[in-house]
Amino acid sequence: MEQEAKQRVRVLHVVRPAVGGMRAHVLQLIVGLRAFGFDSELACPGDSELIHDALEASVVVHPISIVGPLHPLRDPLAISDLVRVIRDRRPSLIHAHGSKAGLLARVAARLSGGVPTIVTVHNQVLYGGISSIVRGVYLRAERWLSRSTARVIAVSEVLRREQVEVFGLPENLVVCIYNGIDPSPFVAGGDRVAARRRLGMPEDAAAFGLAARFAPQKAHVQLVEAAIRVLERDGQAWAVLAGDGPLLETAKTKARASRVRDRILFPGFQTDMPGFLAALDVYCSAAVAEGLGIATIEAMAAGLPVVATAVGGTPEVVEEGVTGLLVPAGRPQALADALSPLLRDAVARKKMGAAGQARALELFSEARMLERTAAVYREALR
Question: Per the confidence metrics, is the pTM higher than 0.70?
Fold first, then answer.
């Protein structure tokens, strides 16, 4: 890492309601980029869970009225809040996270005199049931605002291509920087016996699962359908679906209706990911849209093979047949068919897990992410 710069640079991070991977990523940048000479402040909703973490890290926080979806009444208020913060704090650089924050932050930056603005794209925006009206608004807005954007950071190559090919942004405006993790706690691993005991699961059972927010793009109901098929075939297997979110009860209802309900666990939100992952033999995901997947990287760093749907940036993380298995999205049977033989083959699991850990350490480290982000900041400031 570079020596701390003599002259500090103030950066304002703008975030819509942030949960999960985005919340952790923003905090990583805020804290980690101090060593590169960048002092960060945070603008986000006043009820965001990110505020608590930021205050604990001695970060200046500015509550703003930004909401997730497009909102004709509240969005102008959020822009007004941001203009006030920018004029008061006079940052040298603005870094917005997510499409919605990126839209509002760039408008506010233009109204405040043209502060250089970077936008990080974390997820696929135009997927699923998004309306043609909302799609058109995003496309036109991105093309218009690209003229006043210093750089767009995409967390995967597939997102970088989407920004160029779908949104029509200039090729040289968009750069891919993979999300990174501190791998050390995952490599060290958790206590498998203690983790199994906490979950109430036999020590010798084969177990698969994940930790993710129960949101539409994660397709937990399809994962439950796949789990039911696997558990009906194998009377010793268990499924563990950790996390919380709006679709948790829907997934639980699906599981309760099955004959294997007692072996599908929902342990809730996890604060100790290395400890949770120690209980699993295979990490799996049925997502229908994925920017990159921090939890998948963490699982690989912990030495777990991965079975996942080939969506978004996941094929850039999981090397098919080497660190795990990829299946088409929306096909629970295909997911089950990939999981079942891997749960029975401890040798294959160990081999894939070791390859995955090596890949996670090489491509998805926090240090690599911070260095590349600091370089983009310097380019924007020049």
Answer: yes
Average pLDDT over residues 187-193: 95
Residues 6+ apart with CB under 8 A from 50: 15, 18, 23, 26, 27, 42, 44
List of residues 6+ apart from 257 with CB closer than 8 A: none
Question: Which string of DSSP letters, residue by residue, matches 235-252?
Answer: TTEEEEEE--STTHHHHH
Pair (259, 131) in one structural domain = no
Cα torsion for 45, 49, 53, 58, to the nearest 10°? Answer: 30
Write out the two tokens for 117.
């603005």
pLDDT at 326 over 70: yes
Query: Is 1 contained in some domain?
Result: no
- The confidence score (pLDDT) of residue 19 equals 66
What pLDDT, on a 0 to 100 scale, did the predictor assign at position 260? Answer: 98
Q: Residue 229: give the domain boundaries.
A: 185-363
Same domain, 229 and 166: no
Place of tokens 């599908």: 264
Q: Is residue 215 part of a domain?
A: yes
**43: CB partners within 8 A, 6+ apart:** 12, 13, 14, 15, 61, 62, 63, 64, 66, 81, 82, 85
Could you report the per-residue pLDDT of 100-126, keeping only the tens digit for each?
Answer: 899 999 999 999 998 999 999 988 766
For the chain, what is the domain count? Answer: 2
What residues pair up with 320 in beta bridges, in sequence order?
Answer: 324
In the chain, DSSP finds a helix count (H) and a strand count (E) of 16, 13
Residue 109: CATH number of its domain: 3.40.50.2000
Together in a domain, 47 and 87: yes
pLDDT single digits (tens) 294-320: 999 999 999 999 999 999 999 999 999
